[in-house]
DNA sequence: TGGGGTTAT
DNA sequence: ATAACCC
């Protein structure tokens, strides 16, 4: 049957999108169950970045200012969520749980995952057929309340997908105490769109006959994942406002306006077509830590901010086990107009002698500060006045440590060519 | 509007 | 190094 799987390959996949409910707020409620049942918001600086459903019932919205939120809802409990450590840890527990079922798990942010369950579905379908059982029951909602045709193998496979999605959600609830939504469909785009149809803690499966209905019911093109702010603006100047507009727009004109690659991709998206694979995320490609503030305008302050960011960041890198080979400094300069676009960065290789010391936390910090201050001076002339509102440090280009250099013993012992590097 | 992430050019 | 996208 593996031949039939590869023959279908992208044609008949079963993809599930998992989307946790108000993730940061849920994590806080798991950490402190006394918060359950009360209106709760998670605060970063003067923004309520997310809140639980009790708070939403009382009018609190995501990304609302703390001032507005307190006015709407004086009983609102706020917890500070500027340190992402608990959320990041829980996020990876979710991904790892899903990876127990199947290796094809792709993360999107901290609170979403795609899982390609085509092979699991195929196995269960074969078991079902061999046991002569023709009864299959959908789990959760069917988009549009569409009738299931039990003679249609595509329907059957998606129904089996809905059962697997249900098992994912039950496992997340039982083992991590988390609730979330799931969407089941034939590609990533559609699974993501359909997961949001019934909203907290429910799931929905999309059958192919309702695909056009789902995508065309999006009230704006920016709701299509993959079509962001910039592309939306450019499409607007072309008179393209709705998904239907984009479907009907002449391909040749679109290609000249946006380039062939983007044009073809987003026009396919407008039809609900998405052949991008579920790419296993694996370990992170980068580790960064940032802080925003009202004002930072002297070199000394910059150095202090960097020294604040580094220890926890280095700790994360150390716990990962791999060694970063690139370091980057990012800044945001104050500007009253155009508030949201002005970031610049400089990056450089980390000197090899420093890379090797990356386990020895404190010895690495002051040379790194020196490197980061040099990067800073490449962006900012410190003889002129400046006004920063954000600093960020990022380690990337992570490489596995060669096994011959692992552990303090192996480093000092001469390796003989025969021993394959265990260091003993 | 925070504090993160990714890939493409 | 930036620009676009995602949460």
From TrEMBL:
Keyword hit for Metal-binding: no
Region ranges (Disordered): 272-291
Keywords noted in UniProt: DNA synthesis
InterPro entries: DNA/RNA_pol_sf, DNA_pol_Y-fam_lit_finger_sf, DNA_pol_Y-fam_little_finger, IMS_HHH_1, Rev_trsase/Diguanyl_cyclase, UmuC
Domain UmuC per the UniProt entry, residue ranges: 15-228
GO molecular function terms attached to this record: damaged DNA binding; DNA-directed DNA polymerase activity
Domain of life: Eukaryota
An individual GO BP term: translesion synthesis
PANTHER family registered for this protein in UniProt: DNA POLYMERASE IOTA
Family of the protein in this entry: Belongs to the DNA polymerase type-Y family.
Protein name: POLI polymerase
Gene name for this UniProt entry: Poli
